[in-house]
């Protein structure tokens, strides 16, 4: 009697030790009654293309990709979804039966699904502020614009990067840009922090007057404790505040659906992952 080997999946990144993707995808697999292996693999700079090819040649079924390799994954994918093409980055890879490498970007849909479906927030009709203009913003911008906010304003230390995004996504919606200094006297309904300040233990330099009544504040970062931006939001009397843990789970769910055609329940996994983070703190 023979038994089939479980399907093999992984996430490539550097660093990768703290990745929660194996926990998330094993939880999804348990829901669906699927047998699979999912590993977090550190890939050295310059070795990504070889590692991807070796993974799939060795029977791998699907890959997630995190920093700093999303742009390299984009370059490798022979076929890209429309949202990956707009983002210029890929976080989900798979090969079809003909051996063609496909790429998708699930970050933006993960963010919108967390805010709208899980948190019950409204994006449509809001005046939105996005803090930062790096690759993370490029990945989330089109799905956010598809929700038809009333306005989107992007601030960045280097204003030219924000202006470049505004030009690239002009067909999807009107985007205004500026510096941090231009924010005095302005207010918003939804503020999304995609800056790198939190990686250094700091909140972006924002005036507390930005927060309008019933303003929601979302940080793409997450952790066992509130992020610096979350603390700033609470001190500024934001109506609702969230980190990006739900986005992490929702973008993983979209990858899982892409590979298995099964839509997992994300609520229990978000809850369980909160417990894992708290226990590790």
Q: What does this protein structure show overall?
A:
By secondary structure, this protein is an alpha/beta fold. It has ten helices and twelve strands. A six-stranded mixed β-sheet has the order 2-1-3-5-6-4, sandwiched between helices. Strands 9-8-7-10-11-12 form a six-stranded parallel β-sheet, with helices on both faces. A hairpin with a 5-residue loop joins strand 5 (92-95) and strand 6 (101-104).
Topology:
Layout: E1 7-13, H1 21-32, E2 36-42, H2 48-57, E3 62-65, H3 70-76, E4 79-80, H4 82-87, E5 92-95, E6 101-104, H5 107-118, E7 127-131, H6 135-146, E8 151-155, H7 159-168, E9 175-178, E10 188-193, E11 211-219, H8 228-235, E12 240-242, H9 245-260, H10 267-280
Parallel strand pairs: 1-2, 1-3, 4-6, 7-8, 7-10, 8-9, 10-11, 11-12
Antiparallel strand pairs: 3-5, 5-6
Helix pairs in contact: 1-9, 5-6, 5-9
């Amino acid at each position: 009697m023979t038994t089939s080997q479980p399907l093999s999946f992984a996430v490539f990144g550097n660093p990768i030790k703290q990745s929660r993707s194996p926990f998330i995808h094993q939880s999804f697999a348990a829901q669906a009654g699927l047998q699979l292996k999912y590993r977090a693999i550190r890939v050295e700079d310059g070795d990504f293309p070889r590692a991807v090819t070796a993974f799939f040649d060795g029977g791998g079924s699907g890959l997630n990709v995190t920093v700093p390799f999303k742009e390299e994954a984009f370059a490798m994918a022979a076929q890209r979804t429309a949202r990956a093409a707009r983002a210029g980055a890929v976080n989900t890879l798979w090969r079809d039966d003909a051996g063609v490498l496909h790429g998708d970007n699930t970050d933006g849909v993960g963010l919108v699904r967390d805010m709208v479906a899980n948190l019950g927030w409204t994006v449509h009709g809001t005046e939105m502020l996005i803090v930062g203009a790096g690759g993370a913003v490029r990945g989330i911008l089109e799905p956010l614009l598809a929700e038809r906010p009333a306005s989107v304003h992007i601030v960045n230390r280097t204003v030219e990067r924000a202006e470049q995004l505004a030009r690239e996504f002009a067909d999807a919606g009107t985007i205004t840009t500026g510096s941090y200094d231009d924010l005095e006297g302005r207010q918003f309904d939804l503020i999304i922090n995609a800056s790198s300040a939190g990686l250094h233990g700091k909140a972006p330099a924002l005036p507390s007057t930005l927060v309008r009544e019933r303003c929601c504040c979302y940080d793409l970062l997450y952790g066992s404790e509130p992020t610096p931006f979350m603390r700033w939001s609470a001190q500024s009397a934001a109506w609702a505040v969230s980190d990006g843990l739900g986005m992490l789970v929702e973008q993983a769910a979209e990858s899982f659906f892409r590979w298995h055609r099964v839509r997992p329940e994300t609520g229990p996994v978000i809850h369980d992952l909160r417990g894992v983070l708290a226990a590790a703190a």
